[in-house]
Specification:
By secondary structure, the chain is of the alpha/beta class. The chain is built from eight helices and seven strands. It has a single domain, classed as Rossmann fold (3-Layer(aba) Sandwich), CATH 3.40.50.720. The chain has a seven-stranded parallel sheet with strand order 3-2-1-4-5-6-7, with helices on both faces. The radius of gyration is 17 Å and the shape is globular. It starts with 7 loop residues before the first strand and ends in an 8-residue tail after the last strand. The model has no long low-confidence stretch (mean pLDDT about 95). The structure holds nicotinamide-adenine-dinucleotide.
Amino acid sequence: MNRMQDKVVLLTGIGSGMGRAAALRFAREGAKVIGCDLFDESSDETMKLARDEGLEIKSQGQVDLSDPAAAKRWVDWALSIYGHADVLYNNASTPRFGEIDELSIDDWNFTINNELNLVFYTVKAIWPYFKEHGGVVLNIGSIAGTRGVEFMSQNAHGTAKGGVISLTQQLAAEGGRYGIRAVCISPGFIVTPSTAWLVDSGPQPLLDNLARLPLGRPGRPEDIVNAALFLASEEAQWITGVNLVVDGGGTVLG
Ligand SMILES: NC(=O)c1ccc[n+]([C@@H]2O[C@H](COP(=O)([O-])OP(=O)(O)OC[C@H]3O[C@@H](n4cnc5c(N)ncnc54)[C@H](O)[C@@H]3O)[C@@H](O)[C@H]2O)c1
């Protein structure tokens, strides 16, 4: 407990899945969590779950981070609350899928905006503050960012997540001299509201992949949040630029 005591953590996409799990866990560990989500009912629910435990999470209400002005407003608002920030945790994303000849140009642009550009927007907004005070940028990539799969058309999604991984490396290179660390976690298959249906009725090759995972089960949000806690904490003070794959060992099988 208290591994993040009094750290101010800006966390995107707190209304669902791993973002909700991270918001609650970081708050339990003493962090002052300031969130946002596209859907204010879902971020309200996360804040309520925190209150039920005697914790407090703040959120701005409906924020669409794919709009650079909205992303900057959220970061500025978050910085104004405690006058301070330690961690920017970029969790939120929305992909669209489709085979390359069927995915529309709108869907491609939507995915790049909602999975890659939104990370650039929040980082760009907080960078001047972090340059002065130091800080941690924690991005969520994906194993889709470094590989392809034949059973699911994730061309735009994989490209965007590859961009997130690459951007993290560059942020680490640019930020080190200012005391800024930048790290990425690439989850494998994690059971969240977005993916739960695949466990029962996903394509057979995915089910086969899950069945042969070396660690024997699909991921849980807390598997990612545990890694995030470590990478965001002082214990990771000499770690930057990494892409930590948290996937139950799936990618080592090729
Ligand atoms: N679930 C998996 O198997 C898996 C695997 C690899 C990577 N990831 C990544 O992990 C992260 C969390 O995944 P999840 O499964 O918990 O997702 P999720 O869909 O359950 O939650 C994402 C949250 O982000 C919010 N959001 C999306 N776009 C937004 C925007 N433009 N502005 C503000 N909020 C926005 C959504 O409203 C939602 O509450 C994502 O970056 C995802 O790509 C997930």
